[in-house]
Design a protein that fits this description.
Layout: H1 3-30, H2 41-70, H3 79-101, H4 106-115, H5 117-134, H6 138-144, H7 146-152, H8 154-169, H9 175-215
Helix pairs in contact: 1-2, 1-3, 2-3, 2-8, 2-9, 3-5, 4-5, 5-8, 6-7, 8-9
């Protein structure tokens, strides 16, 4: 079995199942099968889904640096699936808030979105991820062309807003959002460093090209 077939028929299904484990544990804990949700089950469910949404955003952002550093180009085949799982957990986080916390009370929902800043930025990140998930298919990517790449740069904004949302939500101990912020800063910082390095190398390549032309 070659590498592409192995990834498609073995590793992708295994990774898919592994990505579902956090959601399965929430369901299991809800029915006291795998554990419990504590004294405030709704808040616990929201927090778990929100945390895993941030983790999957970071994991998705880590694919490109890992591929570039390691040379494992096959990693890119997991990026779309990981990004969709980030959206899935954000969606579960949002639906938990919408149905269980707010009980679909429109006045309370609109008040939270427009008057509580941490919910406003969290909802904005959710809208960005909706747009990315809706345009994630290969057919749509081909139709959109360069606009697709510009839209999907939104993952950087969604990551920043997600960490910001978490940081503002925490009232006492901000150590967890600080860890997410540090990881996100490292992933975005790597991209900026690599881009500056590429830009700096461009004039050097142009100079060498001009020298070759002058010799002919």
């Amino acid at each position: 079995m070659n590498v592409i077939r192995q990834i498609r028929f073995l590793w992708k299904p295994l990774v898919f199942v592994a990505c579902l484990i956090p959601a399965a544990l929430v369901v299991g804990d809800t029915f006291a099968i795998t554990g419990t949700l504590g004294a405030n089950p709704i808040e616990e469910i929201q927090d778990r889904f929100g945390n895993w949404a941030l983790r999957f955003i970071l994991i998705t952002l880590a694919v490109t640096p890992l591929r570039q550093i390691s040379g494992w180009n096959w990693l890119v085949r997991f990026r779309r699936m990981l990004g969709l799982f980030a959206f899935f957990y954000v969606l579960m986080h949002f639906l938990t808030w919408l149905f269980l916390d707010q009980e679909l009370l429109l006045s309370a929902i609109s008040e939270d979105i427009f008057e509580r800043p941490f919910i406003t930025i969290g909802f904005t990140a959710f809208l960005i991820l909706i747009a990315m998930a809706a345009t994630s298919t290969i057919a749509i990517r081909r139709r959109m062309g360069r606009r697709w790449q510009q839209l999907h740069y939104g993952i950087y904004v969604a990551g920043i807003l997600g960490v910001w949302h978490y940081w503002w939500q925490v009232k006492l101990d901000a150590s967890d959002p600080a860890i997410y912020a540090a990881l996100l800063a490292a992933l975005l910082g790597y991209r900026l460093w690599r881009r500056k390095r590429k830009v700096a190398a461009q004039p050097e390549r142009n100079r060498h090209g001009n020298r070759r032309l002058e010799t002919h």
